[in-house]
Design goal:
Length: 350
């Protein structure tokens, strides 16, 4: 008995250690596997891949500058190995798969199985479309935006500024589709999602910056076009990030107004009727005069700010301030609910 009592604590300690080790690795999220949702997810992957691959083929691949992140590294590797393994676009498709698929597999294991699989589908679409564009160019002369005089498709008036803007805007639209739907789009974003999964308290902005900066440095040495490659790479990375931020936050952004007033009923009624926005009222007390006030909260769109201020100016003894809201979620019912008769009768009896 004494021997068994002494041997139990180490066994319990081992089980506790195993539980602690398993808790260190997060479990993947539950996935929505309805057929309609999966079909829509595949469509989003195809649309995003079409945007990104077309921007790479048409603007970036043949103008001696690289996009950001893992795709940029794949583009640089394809350019370096072109004399040994053949055409750049085909090499880039292979390097994209070699660099991204291990990251996506880790995302499927630790973040979400469905997300990891959809990222792989997105990557396969992107690589296949790049090869399709190259085949169409070889077979039917599909053009690309030639901005370099020594290129095969140079046209007078084309320049690297427009090429970097084009790849930044179009690829940013594709990235935003994937990030909005799956939380990642590949490369840097997938690595960021993995790090956030293990260390949600850490700021991972430095990682994206470091990867993009490394692409800029490599572009300078690989393409040997001096400042043109560096500036074009910086421009398309910067523009792509702006487009992603705008698509994720700017389309549904607004302004939140908090108003202190003595006339909440009249002001809220006018705001709801003329602007169609809901208003929430809270009780407040002015500490200088110790009088009862009402604190009104109302969120409006950018285009409604001017009309909101015109309404506000007509009410005296009213103070307001505003702050920008990145995105608005949810929706209340637009009609008040009727009070049940039994509640009305009970309140009258009281």
């Amino acid at each position: 008995m004494e021997h068994s009592s002494e041997s139990n604590p180490p066994a319990e300690a081992e089980t506790i250690d195993k539980e602690e080790q398993t808790e260190k690795f997060p479990h993947p999220d539950k996935d929505d596997l309805r057929p309609g949702t999966i079909i829509f997810d595949v469509f989003i992957c195809f649309a995003a891949a079409l945007l990104v691959s077309s921007s790479l083929y048409y603007f970036s691949n043949y103008n001696n500058f690289a996009p950001g992140g893992i795709t940029g590294i794949a583009s640089i590797l394809a350019s370096v190995t072109e004399p040994y393994f053949g055409e750049m676009t085909l090499n880039m498709s292979i390097f994209m798969m070699l660099l991204n698929i291990p990251i996506f597999i880790l995302a499927a294991i630790f973040v979400s199985r469905k997300t990891g699989i959809m990222l792989i589908v997105y990557l396969l679409f992107q690589s296949a479309l790049l090869m399709l564009f190259k085949w169409l160019h070889t077979r039917y002369g599909l053009p690309y935006y030639g901005a370099l005089p020594d290129g095969n498709c140079y046209e007078d008036g084309n320049n690297l500024v427009f090429a970097s803007i084009g790849v930044g805007v179009i690829s940013g639209l594709g990235f935003s589709l994937m990030i909005r739907r799956f939380g990642a789009s590949g490369g840097t974003y997938a690595i960021s999602a993995l790090i956030k999964r293990f260390r949600p308290e850490h700021n991972i902005a430095w990682l994206a910056f470091a990867m993009d900066a490394s692409v800029v440095v490599l572009a300078f040495f690989v393409y040997r076009s001096g400042a043109n490659a560096v500036i074009s790479t910086l421009a398309n990375i910067f523009i792509s990030d702006i487009v992603v931020d705008f698509m994720l936050q700017g389309l549904r952004s607004g302004y939140k107004f908090e108003i202190i007033t003595d006339k909440p009923e009249a002001l809220s009624e006018e705001l709801m009727q003329k602007l169609g926005r809901g208003v929430t009222t809270l009780h407040a007390e002015g500490m200088y005069t110790h009088t009862d006030k009402s604190l009104m909260i109302c969120i409006v769109r950018k285009r409604q700010v001017g009309a909101f201020l015109k309404i506000l100016k007509r009410y005296r003894a009213t103070f307001s301030y505003s702050c920008k809201v990145n995105e608005v979620y949810g929706k209340f019912e637009n009609h008040p609910r009727a009070i049940p008769k039994n509640k009305e009768q009970s309140s009258e009896r009281k």
